[in-house]
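<instruction>
Derive structure tokens from the sequence
<data>
Labelled lines for chain and fold
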Amino acid sequence: MTVLPTSLVQQVAPGPEPVRFTGYAPVGPEAARGWTATRDHLRAELLTTPELLTNPLVVGHASRLLAATLLAAFPNSTTADPVVEDRRDAHPDALRRALAFIDANPDRDLATSDVAAAARVSTRAVQLAFRRHLGTTPMAYLRQVRLDHARADLTSATTGQDTVTRIAAKWGYGRASVFAARYRAAYGVSPSQTLRES
């Protein structure tokens, strides 16, 4: 059995209202498979690589991923459409505040609720602002900012001292293979190639 703190689930939830689960069974077979796969993957990775448990970015991301998957898989009170206030608050000024906050704090363990608080709007409004104006999510934008910082670190790395794995972990990537795949997709080269050329 998996038990998550209510505060964590509330932090990930898209609205300010308390989350209420309305059923014990997943909303469908695909949701059940997604929940099981995510839970088992995180358990296996974190338990077989104990040093990941000391990295607050990895632990925070893994915790929020598990909570978000829980919300997506099981029926709950957060699945309603955005309210009028959220749609109204999803304006460019809120987005600018959110972007500035992420850009200034990429090394912190951030949740969407932190970004929303900095933008002075609800979690759902900040999600709508990112989707409406950038076609992405706050967390996807944060991942890209962290990837950009990792690239800068690789480019300015000291040969023999810095490793791809260490730089990846610094920016919240617990698995070097995931980091390498995202890095290659974003920049067209492997992180090790960037490190060698620094």
Summary: Residues 84-136 form one domain.
